[in-house]
Protein backbone atom coordinates (compact mmCIF):
# COMPACT_ATOMS: atom_id res chain seq x y z
CA UNK A 1 0.00 0.00 0.00
CA UNK A 2 1.23 3.49 -0.87
CA UNK A 3 -0.01 6.59 0.95
CA UNK A 4 0.68 10.04 -0.52
CA UNK A 5 0.53 12.92 1.95
CA UNK A 6 1.55 10.46 4.66
CA UNK A 7 2.67 13.11 7.16
CA UNK A 8 -0.55 15.14 7.02
CA UNK A 9 -3.44 14.99 9.48
CA UNK A 10 -5.41 12.34 7.61
CA UNK A 11 -2.37 10.75 6.02
CA UNK A 12 -0.55 9.86 9.21
CA UNK A 13 -3.70 8.39 10.74
CA UNK A 14 -4.23 6.37 7.59
CA UNK A 15 -0.67 5.06 7.78
CA UNK A 16 -1.15 4.17 11.45
CA UNK A 17 -4.42 2.36 10.74
CA UNK A 18 -2.89 0.44 7.85
CA UNK A 19 0.11 -0.62 9.93
CA UNK A 20 -2.17 -1.74 12.76
CA UNK A 21 -3.88 -4.07 10.29
CA UNK A 22 -0.61 -5.59 9.18
CA UNK A 23 -0.21 -3.82 5.85
CA UNK A 24 3.20 -2.98 4.44
CA UNK A 25 3.04 0.79 3.87
CA UNK A 26 5.09 3.03 1.62
CA UNK A 27 4.62 6.47 3.18
CA UNK A 28 5.19 9.22 0.62
CA UNK A 29 6.11 12.79 1.54
CA UNK A 30 7.27 15.69 -0.61
CA UNK A 31 9.56 17.26 2.01
CA UNK A 32 12.44 15.00 3.13
CA UNK A 33 12.39 16.68 6.56
CA UNK A 34 8.98 15.15 7.22
CA UNK A 35 10.29 11.60 7.00
CA UNK A 36 11.14 11.92 10.69
CA UNK A 37 7.41 12.22 11.44
CA UNK A 38 6.58 8.84 9.91
CA UNK A 39 6.14 5.65 11.96
CA UNK A 40 9.28 3.55 12.00
CA UNK A 41 7.46 0.56 10.52
CA UNK A 42 6.47 2.52 7.39
CA UNK A 43 8.78 2.64 4.38
CA UNK A 44 9.51 6.34 3.75
CA UNK A 45 9.63 7.65 0.20
CA UNK A 46 10.26 11.21 -0.96
CA UNK A 47 8.26 11.86 -4.12
CA UNK A 48 6.03 14.47 -5.72
CA UNK A 49 2.38 13.52 -6.29
CA UNK A 50 2.29 16.12 -9.09
CA UNK A 51 4.74 13.99 -11.09
CA UNK A 52 2.98 11.27 -13.07
CA UNK A 53 6.19 9.27 -13.49
CA UNK A 54 6.84 9.41 -9.73
CA UNK A 55 3.28 8.26 -9.03
CA UNK A 56 3.68 5.35 -11.45
CA UNK A 57 6.95 4.29 -9.79
CA UNK A 58 5.47 4.58 -6.28
CA UNK A 59 2.36 2.60 -7.21
CA UNK A 60 3.99 -0.20 -9.21
CA UNK A 61 3.49 -3.53 -7.47
CA UNK A 62 1.16 -2.11 -4.82
CA UNK A 63 -2.37 -3.27 -4.14
CA UNK A 64 -3.77 0.23 -3.56
CA UNK A 65 -2.71 3.88 -3.51
CA UNK A 66 -4.29 6.34 -1.09
CA UNK A 67 -4.00 10.07 -1.70
CA UNK A 68 -4.36 12.25 1.40
CA UNK A 69 -2.58 15.26 -0.07
CA UNK A 70 -3.76 18.82 0.61
CA UNK A 71 -2.53 22.03 -1.04
CA UNK A 72 -0.98 24.87 0.91
CA UNK A 73 -3.25 27.89 1.57
CA UNK A 74 -3.33 30.06 -1.51
CA UNK A 75 -2.47 27.14 -3.78
CA UNK A 76 -5.82 25.39 -3.73
CA UNK A 77 -5.90 25.06 -7.52
CA UNK A 78 -2.88 22.75 -7.30
CA UNK A 79 -5.21 20.07 -5.95
CA UNK A 80 -6.60 19.35 -9.42
CA UNK A 81 -3.13 19.13 -10.96
CA UNK A 82 -2.09 16.67 -8.25
CA UNK A 83 -5.20 14.55 -8.69
CA UNK A 84 -4.80 14.39 -12.45
CA UNK A 85 -1.18 13.26 -12.02
CA UNK A 86 -2.25 10.59 -9.54
CA UNK A 87 -4.97 9.34 -11.86
CA UNK A 88 -2.56 9.22 -14.80
CA UNK A 89 0.10 7.47 -12.74
CA UNK A 90 -2.13 4.68 -11.46
CA UNK A 91 -3.68 4.29 -14.91
CA UNK A 92 -0.23 3.15 -16.08
CA UNK A 93 0.12 0.53 -13.36
CA UNK A 94 -3.51 -0.55 -12.97
CA UNK A 95 -3.41 0.04 -9.22
CA UNK A 96 -6.53 1.25 -7.47
CA UNK A 97 -6.58 4.87 -6.19
CA UNK A 98 -8.49 6.07 -3.13
CA UNK A 99 -8.75 9.86 -3.02
CA UNK A 100 -9.43 11.79 0.18
CA UNK A 101 -11.65 14.56 -1.10
CA UNK A 102 -13.80 17.36 0.21
CA UNK A 103 -17.32 17.68 1.58
CA UNK A 104 -18.42 20.89 -0.16
CA UNK A 105 -20.00 19.18 -3.16
CA UNK A 106 -22.21 16.89 -1.07
CA UNK A 107 -25.88 17.82 -1.30
CA UNK A 108 -27.67 19.02 1.81
CA UNK A 109 -30.22 16.59 3.29
CA UNK A 110 -33.71 17.45 2.06
CA UNK A 111 -32.46 20.41 0.03
CA UNK A 112 -32.43 18.76 -3.38
CA UNK A 113 -29.48 19.84 -5.53
CA UNK A 114 -28.25 22.45 -3.03
CA UNK A 115 -24.72 21.58 -1.95
CA UNK A 116 -22.96 22.22 1.33
CA UNK A 117 -20.88 24.95 -0.32
CA UNK A 118 -24.05 26.64 -1.55
CA UNK A 119 -25.68 26.60 1.86
CA UNK A 120 -26.19 29.84 3.83
CA UNK A 121 -23.84 28.84 6.65
CA UNK A 122 -20.84 27.81 4.56
CA UNK A 123 -17.78 29.90 5.57
CA UNK A 124 -16.67 32.22 2.77
CA UNK A 125 -12.99 31.64 3.60
CA UNK A 126 -13.39 27.98 2.63
CA UNK A 127 -14.59 28.92 -0.85
CA UNK A 128 -11.24 28.34 -2.63
CA UNK A 129 -10.67 24.85 -1.23
CA UNK A 130 -14.34 23.97 -1.78
CA UNK A 131 -14.05 24.94 -5.44
CA UNK A 132 -10.82 22.98 -5.78
CA UNK A 133 -12.30 19.85 -4.20
CA UNK A 134 -15.31 20.00 -6.53
CA UNK A 135 -12.94 20.22 -9.50
CA UNK A 136 -10.96 17.34 -7.99
CA UNK A 137 -14.06 15.14 -8.00
CA UNK A 138 -14.81 16.22 -11.57
CA UNK A 139 -11.29 15.15 -12.56
CA UNK A 140 -11.89 11.71 -11.09
CA UNK A 141 -15.19 11.33 -12.90
CA UNK A 142 -13.60 12.51 -16.15
CA UNK A 143 -11.02 9.72 -15.87
CA UNK A 144 -13.79 7.24 -16.61
CA UNK A 145 -12.51 3.71 -17.05
CA UNK A 146 -8.94 4.95 -17.49
CA UNK A 147 -8.24 4.67 -13.77
CA UNK A 148 -9.71 2.58 -10.97
CA UNK A 149 -10.56 5.37 -8.52
CA UNK A 150 -12.71 5.95 -5.44
CA UNK A 151 -13.41 9.38 -3.93
CA UNK A 152 -14.19 9.63 -0.22
CA UNK A 153 -15.82 12.84 0.98
CA UNK A 154 -15.67 13.59 4.70
CA UNK A 155 -18.66 14.99 6.60
CA UNK A 156 -18.90 18.70 7.41
CA UNK A 157 -16.56 18.33 10.39
CA UNK A 158 -13.42 16.19 10.29
CA UNK A 159 -11.30 16.60 13.40
CA UNK A 160 -8.84 14.64 15.53
CA UNK A 161 -10.56 12.40 18.05
CA UNK A 162 -11.03 8.80 19.09
CA UNK A 163 -11.04 5.62 17.06
CA UNK A 164 -14.34 3.82 17.61
CA UNK A 165 -14.56 1.81 14.40
CA UNK A 166 -18.18 2.90 13.95
CA UNK A 167 -19.50 5.03 11.09
CA UNK A 168 -22.33 5.26 8.55
CA UNK A 169 -21.94 5.10 4.79
CA UNK A 170 -23.54 7.49 2.32
CA UNK A 171 -23.35 8.53 -1.30
CA UNK A 172 -23.62 12.06 -2.67
CA UNK A 173 -25.70 13.47 0.20
CA UNK A 174 -24.20 14.89 3.40
CA UNK A 175 -24.73 12.59 6.38
CA UNK A 176 -25.93 14.18 9.61
CA UNK A 177 -27.24 12.89 12.93
CA UNK A 178 -30.66 13.62 14.45
CA UNK A 179 -29.35 16.95 15.77
CA UNK A 180 -28.14 17.98 12.33
CA UNK A 181 -24.46 17.46 13.19
CA UNK A 182 -22.24 16.06 10.46
CA UNK A 183 -19.01 14.78 11.99
CA UNK A 184 -16.41 12.02 12.18
CA UNK A 185 -13.00 11.79 13.81
CA UNK A 186 -9.93 11.59 11.61
CA UNK A 187 -9.20 8.26 13.25
CA UNK A 188 -12.52 6.75 12.16
CA UNK A 189 -12.20 8.39 8.76
CA UNK A 190 -8.98 6.41 8.39
CA UNK A 191 -10.87 3.27 9.43
CA UNK A 192 -13.38 3.89 6.63
CA UNK A 193 -10.55 4.41 4.13
CA UNK A 194 -8.87 1.13 5.09
CA UNK A 195 -12.19 -0.73 5.09
CA UNK A 196 -12.75 0.45 1.51
CA UNK A 197 -9.18 -0.44 0.56
CA UNK A 198 -9.58 -3.97 1.90
CA UNK A 199 -13.17 -4.54 0.75
CA UNK A 200 -13.93 -2.34 -2.31
CA UNK A 201 -17.56 -1.25 -2.49
CA UNK A 202 -17.34 2.07 -4.30
CA UNK A 203 -15.31 1.65 -7.46
CA UNK A 204 -15.28 4.69 -9.77
CA UNK A 205 -17.70 6.59 -7.60
CA UNK A 206 -17.86 8.91 -4.59
CA UNK A 207 -19.04 7.97 -1.13
CA UNK A 208 -19.10 9.65 2.27
CA UNK A 209 -19.02 8.64 5.92
CA UNK A 210 -20.10 10.13 9.23
CA UNK A 211 -21.26 9.12 12.69
Task: Explain this structure.
The mean pLDDT is about 95. α1 links the parallel β1 and β2. The protein starts with a strand and ends with a strand. The radius of gyration is 16 Å and the shape is globular. It is of the alpha/beta class and about 210 residues long. The protein is built from five helices and ten strands, in the order βαββαβαβαββββαβ.
Largest sheet: 8 strands, mixed
User: Outline, from the CA principal axes?
Assistant: globular
List the total number of helices. 5
Helix content: 25-40%
Strand order of the largest sheet: 3-2-1-4-5-6-10-8
**Got a strand count?**
10
* Global mean pLDDT: 96
Distance between the termini: 26 Å
Radius of gyration: 16 Å
Salient structural properties:
eight-stranded mixed β-sheet, 5 helices, two-stranded parallel sheet, alpha/beta
Chain-wise SSE layout:
Blueprint: E1 2-4, H1 9-20, E2 26-29, E3 43-46, H2 52-59, E4 64-67, H3 78-93, E5 96-100, H4 127-143, E6 149-153, E7 157-159, E8 168-170, E9 183-185, H5 186-198, E10 206-210
Parallel strand pairs: 1-2, 1-4, 2-3, 4-5, 5-6, 6-10, 7-9
Antiparallel strand pairs: 8-10
Amino acid sequence: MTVFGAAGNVGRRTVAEALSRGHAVTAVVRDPARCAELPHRAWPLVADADDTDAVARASAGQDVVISATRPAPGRERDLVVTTEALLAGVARTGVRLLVVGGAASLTLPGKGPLTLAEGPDFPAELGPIATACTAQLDACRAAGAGADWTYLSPPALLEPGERTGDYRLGGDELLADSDGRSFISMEDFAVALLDEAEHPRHRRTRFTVAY
